[in-house]
Each structure stands twice: as C-alpha cells, then as structure tokens.
Specification:
globular; Cytochrome p450-Terp, domain 2; transferase; Citrate_synthase; binds amidocarboxymethyldethia coenzyme *A; about 0% strand; Citrate synthase; Citrate_synthase_AS; about 425 residues; mainly alpha; Citrate_synthase_sf; about 60% helix
C-alpha cells in the first residue's frame, strides 16, 4: 500500500518526462497571443500558463483532473454510498490525478487529523485581532501566523535542492489544509459567538470537523459542507486566488505566504466575496418586495433598479464561463432535494428565470448565467450559518485543496519565477501606433 507521497513521487517523475516531451515537440509553437485590448482588459482569455489540477471549459464548466462535478459526485468516495464526495477524496484526486480507494481516503483523513492541532500562538493571535476586521482578513492573518511552522522555508534556508522542494511544499500544504477548519472556526466563533470555542473531533472528516467546530451538529449540513468544500476547491489557474498563490509561490515564498496572498484576492467582491454579496442582495430584494410574493414582473423591475443604480447583480456573469455554472446546478439539485420549500431558495429559483433575461437585454455582459456564488449562501443560511460576512472564509477553506495541490506541482515541475513583460501606453504609441 503505497503512501500518498510515494504515489505522488512516481507521478511527478512521469510528469516531468511528459513535460520534457511536450516541450521538445511543440516548445516553440505559439500557445496564445495577446492584443492591446487584452493587455488593457485584464488579460482575458490569453493562454499563457499551464495548470495541471483542473481545466475550465466555457460551456461545460470545471473538470477536476478531467472529471466533471457530476462524475466526481459519482466516483469519489463519500462518507456513505451515494453521498457527496469527501473533500479528502478530491484532494487525493487533485494531487495524484487518480480516483482514490476508500482506504486511501481514510489514510489521508487520518494524516490530516494528525496535523490539525493549532499551535497556541496562532490561537492567541486570532483571539487578539479585533472582530471588526473582516473575517477574511482574520483568516489571512491566521494563515500567516502559522508560517512559523513552514518546513519549506526552513529547508530552503538550509539549502534544499530544487528537485526536493515539492516534498516540503507538500508537507506545508497538508498541514495548512489540515488546520484551516480550526482557523476558520475560531474566526467564526470569535466574530459571532463571543469567542466561545468548540472542541475539535479528530475522528471526523474535514467537513464534519469544520461544522462541529463552528457549533453545528447536523448530518445533512455535513453533507452540504462536503459538497461545498469539493466544488469550490479549484477553477483552473487564471482566477485571482489561484493565480495569486501561483505567482507568490513562484518567488519560492513558502505555502503559507502564497496561500495567504490567494485569500486576500479571494476576499474581493468580484471574486469570492460575491457569495456574501449575493445573500445581502437577496435580502434587499426581499425587503423591496415588502411582503408581496415574488413574480417575474416585480423581480425584473428590482433587477433593473440594481443595474440602473450602477451596481452589478452579484452571482451572475463569469470571465470564462458562458453557460450556467455546474457548481450552481449541483447546489440547486441539493436544494431541490433537501429544502425545496425554503423561501430564499424559491426566490433564487425564480431569479434564475429572470436575471439572465435582464442582463441579456442590458446587452453588456459576456455571460448572463449564474455562477457558483448565486447559490451557496442560500444553502448555508438554511442550515443556520446566517452570518454572511463569513461565507468567503468557507470558500477559502475549500480553495486550499486546489491551489495548494497545484502549488505542489509547480515546485515538482520546477516552474520558474513568474515575470511577464509589461509596457507603457507611451511604449505602445511609439512602437505600435506610429509604426
Ligand atoms: N451584473 C451587471 N453587470 C455585469 C455583470 C453582472 N452580474 N457581470 C458583468 N457585468 C458588466 C461588467 O461590469 C462590464 O461592464 P463595464 O463594461 O461597464 O465595465 C460588462 O458587463 C462586461 O463584463 P464581462 O466581460 O461580462 O465580465 P468580466 O469578465 O469583466 O467580469 C465578473 C466577470 C464575474 C467579474 C462579472 O461578471 C461580475 O462582476 N459579476 C458579478 C460579481 C460576481 O458574481 N462575481 C463572482 C464570480 C465568480 C467567482 O469568482 N467567485
């Protein structure tokens, strides 16, 4: 029974050879090009990096190591037959590219549990930050505080050879992933529950450990959390959080520094904060309805009010996707099964019929369809997590699985420091306009 590290070691050897072959065959061919508009426009669609753990198709949505979300739900081991995947299962898949056996998942769960205890100074630091700090800022501080334990930083300072760096990156990444549920839960309990902390149960899987630490005991909510932590894990390499982790890690900053940078990006309203903003907006919509039942007509009017006041409709649109996000669809299916009569879910359902039409009519958006964030808050709220400012922290716990798996591969493949070339507007005028 080979360990995760042994299996990964073999895969890395194979992949290093594969990359050599690919570079030998097509290394000098153009992968993508960049127009002046794209350079001013957030580099949208410019193909300029490789990223192994997931790939986003504009129409189909995300595939983790080639597997779609429904395939992951079918194939990845859960806590019970037919249940949602365990995030540990997805982590194994992201790291190795293989669907794990039940035994392998259990071994990984144990491994994570053995690393889960937080050092005292991390707890002390988290307990001393003002709770007026946004939970994402508290979360990021917690991550940075754990940096004192970085094996990667220590080994690098001792002169570790480049081809061994992935091992130390894996070491830190597993510890970081193992500890994030408790960091998140401390932020939650400090911010909304007067700092009264719950005991960690290390026999539980990562999702159930997290919900228990937050103060919940509901097997159905645990299943939601398993699904939630699975679907938010990775979304290929160019999104703000994944790319920040990659970029900062490329300077050989250790995984704690790199992941904290990713979380600071996830905290932005156009990225991970959208899940918080969606629920805020839904509650505003409800207030505007003032007791009237939602209809397509009154919702259309409210959507236009949002747009006309210069705001985006949160949870809709995407930089890459061009259809309904499959992460939205699987959450909708979960809701149809477990909370079909929930008032907010019914509002979300009706908005699914209204918002895309309004956005299409406005004619600006490249994609009028809902993304993952349009649905997640509704489910969390139903199970009792009513504190919207916390939602992005849960997104962050999940995002560690993908971005840190990918970071291990960055070091395994010896990717160099990232350093694209920038130009000034004056340079463009002198070299392109007049040319
Ligand atoms: N409501 C109103 N206007 C929108 C819109 C929305 N949901 N989505 C895009 N637009 C606007 C843009 O602001 C832009 O307007 P501008 O030309 O006046 O600046 C125009 O439509 C074209 O934008 P785009 O090409 O369709 O999108 P993009 O690639 O520039 O941005 C995204 C993508 C997600 C930032 C954008 O769709 C958005 O702001 N959506 C709402 C926030 C949101 O849900 N974010 C979460 C995304 C998923 C995630 O990262 N978690």
């Amino acid at each position: 029974n080979a360990s995760l590290k042994e299996i990964l070691g073999e895969k890395i050897q194979e992949m290093r050879e594969e990359v050599q072959e690919v570079r030998h065959a097509v290394g000098s061919q153009v992968l993508g090009s960049c127009t002046v508009d794209q350079a001013y426009g957030g580099m949208r669609s410019v193909k300029s990096m490789t990223y192994e753990t997931s790939l986003l198709d504009p129409n189909e949505g995300i595939r983790f190591r080639g597997y779609s979300i429904p395939e992951c739900q079918k194939l990845l081991p859960g806590i019970k037959q037919g249940g949602e995947p365990l995030p540990e299962s997805l982590l194994w898949l992201l790291l190795t590219g293989e669907i794990p056996s039940v035994q392998q998942v259990e071994a990984l769960r144990e491994e994570l549990s053995s690393r889960a205890n937080l050092p005292d100074h991390v707890k002390k630091t988290l307990n001393s930050v003002p709770i007026s700090l946004h939970p994402m800022a508290q979360f990021s501080i917690g991550i940075l505080t754990m940096q004192s334990d970085s094996v990667f930083a220590k080994e690098y300072a001792r002169g570790a050879p480049k081809n061994k760096l992935w091992e130390y990156c894996l070491e830190d990444s597993l510890t970081l992933i193992a500890r994030l549920p408790q960091v998140a839960a401390i932020v939650y309990r400090n911010t909304y529950h007067q700092g009264k902390q719950m005991e960690a149960d290390l026999k539980l899987d990562m999702a159930a450990r997290l919900t228990k630490l937050m103060g919940f005991q509901n097997p159905e909510f645990d299943e939601l959390m398993r699904l939630y932590l699975t679907i938010h894990a990775d979304h290929e390499g160019g999104n703000v959080s994944a790319h920040s982790v990659r970029l900062v890690g490329s300077a050989l900053s250790d995984p704690y520094l790199a992941f904290s940078a990713g979380m600071n990006g996830l905290a932005g309203p156009l990225h991970g904060l959208a899940n918080q903003n969606v629920l805020t907006w839904l509650l505003q919509v409800k207030e505007k309805l003032g007791g009237q039942s939602p209809t397509k007509e009154n919702l259309t009017k409210i959507c236009w009010e949002t747009l006309n006041s210069g705001n985006v409709i949160p949870g809709f649109g995407h930089a890459v996707l061009r259809r309904t996000d499959p992460r939205y669809t699987c959450q909708r299916e979960f809701a149809l099964k477990h909370l079909p009569n929930d008032e907010i879910f019914q509002l979300v359902s009706l908005l699914y019929e209204v918002v895309p039409k309004v956005l299409a009519e406005q004619g600006k958006v490249s994609n009028p369809w809902p993304n993952v964030d349009a649905h997640s808050g509704t489910l969390l709220r139903y199970y009792g997590v009513k504190e919207m400012t916390f939602y992005t922290v849960l997104f962050g716990v999940s995002r560690a699985l993908g971005t840190l798996s990918s970071l291990v591969w960055d070091r395994a493949l010896g990717l160099p420091i990232e350093r694209p070339k920038s130009v000034t507007t004056r340079w463009i005028k002198e070299n392109m306009v007049q040319a």
